Amino acid sequence: MKDAFGAPQSLLVLGGTSEIGLATARRLVARRTRTVWLAGRPSPDLEAAAAALRGLRPETDAVTVRTVPFDALDPSAHEEALGKVFAEGDVDMVLLAFGVLGDQGRDEAAPLAAVRVAQTNYTGAVSAGLICANALRAQGHGSLVVLSSVAGERVRRANFIYGSSKAGLDAFAQGLGDALHGSGVHVMVVRPGFVRTRMTAGLTEAPMATTPEAVAHAIEQGLWRRSETVWVPGAMRLVMSALRHVPRTVFRRLPL
Amino acid sequence: MSDAETSTEPAGPVTGWGRTAPSVARLVRPRSYEEAAAAVRACGTRGGIARGLGRAYGDAAQNAGGAVLDMTGLARIRSIDADAGLVVCDAGVSLHRLMEVLLPLGWFVPVTPGTRYVTVGGAIGADIHGKNHHVSGSFGRHVRAFDLLTADGTIRTVLPGTDLFDATTGGMGLTGVILSATVQLLPVETSLMSVDTERATDLDDLMARLTANDHGYRYSVAWIDLLARGAATGRAVLTRGDHAPYDALPRRARRDPLAFRPGRLPAAPAFVPDGLLSRPAVGLFNELWYRRAPRHRTGELQRLSAFFHPLDGVPHWNRVYGRAGFVQYQFVVGYGREDTLRRIVRRIARRGCPSFLAVLKRFGEGDPGWLSFPMPGWTLALDIPAGLTGLGAFLDELDEEVAGAGGRVYLAKDSRLRPDALRVMYPRLPDFLDLRAELDPRAVFTSDLARRLGL
Fold this sequence. Notes:
The structure holds two protein chains of two kinds. Chain A has one domain: Rossmann fold (3-Layer(aba) Sandwich). Chain A has nine helices and seven strands; from the N terminus they run βαβαβαβααβαβαβαα. Chain A has helices at residues 19-29, 44-54, 78-87, 104-109, 111-139, 160-179, 212-225, 236-243, 248-251, and strands spanning 10-14, 35-40, 64-69, 93-96, 142-147, 185-192, 229-232. Chain A has a seven-stranded parallel β-sheet, with helices on both faces. The longest helix of chain A has 29 residues, at 111-139. Chain B is of the alpha+beta class. In chain B, 26% of the residues lie in helices and 25% in strands. In chain B, the strands form four sheets. Chain B has an eight-stranded antiparallel β-sheet with strand order 15-12-14-13-17-18-16-19. In chain B, strand 5 and strand 6 (86-90) form a beta hairpin. Chain B starts with 6 loop residues before the first strand and ends with a helix. The A-B interface holds A 1-7, 9, 31-32, 90, 138-141, 182-184, 224-225 and B 11-13, 18, 20-25, 46, 58-59, 63-66, 324-325, 327, 386-387, 391-393, 415-416, 418, 448-449, 451-452.
């Protein structure tokens, strides 16, 4: 159960090697979280991430961290994989953290690669999001935290494949949050700006760039306030509300 | 009556009095013992928990995804023995109702907390205490018997001195649903209180005054200003008294000495902006409250409601904390651990928690309930807005101090304790868990509090 400050005791991270996901897990383990599920494609990285979380509280069995095989691109297996997690006990918080950036230039020339971006970021999230939402609804409490992006708020020429997938995800999560209103389940959409991670390594840093730790902090604050939308950094909200209204003819010329 | 007649309201978010951590449950309102039994049988895999008037501050009467049995539909006073001062009533009867009915007969509830709007079932489940704990102990001490609906669907009459009685008093509803209880009452001559008020200039002065002559009063409590710092840290207003004897009443009041007329102000508005109770606002309130109190006054006659339940005058006062709600932190540390109390008071004052409802009291002997809160020592209770930055970690630190001194926090007020801290604070917890495993192996009775703390 979450406590009065929204701190969860159990956490499921979809995208178990996501840097933002793991930064959030570390932060929550420092508070009340004692059960963590890392869902992702089986890999040494996933196991290493689990071991690192266990190491945060070396006292015997202080934190239970388990991995569960999960592939966003295989929605037909989601029900079974996630069903197992919920069958083991309540999950106070689900963090939907998987996603790929793709390579805009290459993906424009290779439509199937672009489709994989869309399938991972949007289709996979629709499947996993609905399955988790139903399980949370049945338990009558919990938070579903969806990692969206400012890239989906106003889609740019430079990364519209990724941006459109996040726009779809963001809209889906908002609608899901409204559908779950009054069910005891809280859906929170998190819109970070440019985050310094492996995914963005080598890219030119955008203004107001942030870190996985800052996103994790914002998520913890959002849980406490039961926020529906969280921008990271907070000022990004103002920037985007301005950009949203820039006319197309101007917007496409902006050096974004 | 058939099951279909049990009113089942659509699921809605349920919170405690502190309005934090809402969860959704099926609300069932049984109107008879049979309906209650049927509701327990129909609880399903996520179980059920009894709920009274929702005055527990945290998640004790919430049950996410399961059933919450609203017991206020079971509110009949079954019999009153006006000679012996015994009342037999349903669990959903409020202390307010008991006062309305019993005061004209010259009887008063044996223990009342800071609100009359708690049910008898809740009073037993939380084993509540009042300003008279140092003399009279907790509510459970005055219960002569109760009927408990257990997980197997049977109704058992439970008597003091048995394991089931001691597990249920303070057991937070996790042993079953209390259906009715027999309570021993306190005889009174009037409905007025004779009150002595004095000021204490700091915490040491306060503790000295309380220690010196608490035993001379049936009721004793100190309101403490936790925002005052420096030399004034822990300054307080002591109010102590007893039921006024008939002879103490002025002529006019003698015409109707047992009248019960609690005043009531308009309710707090449904929407209050967050942060209304800011540090400066509460600081000003505390300053005025302290200055307003007489340095020393004896024998003042006060109405019962003014002495015991000042906040009941403002319905829904919990809304003043805004959307974020508030937490109440109440702990006890034993006599001889005054150093811990001093340290905690200093820490709270230094941190500037805007708390305008802090009270300090001395407890008497501990009570037999396995999870009962009181133990001989000092108890401090304070309200803090849940939106205060870093509050979670701060209270965890206070838990460490309290547990380290052999003290504990009160479950009826809790909404944030760590499960491992609970194990240290309540040494009889293993007995409680064993009894529960035997009595309710499928955990039919459960709550958000039980899930959070592993009860």
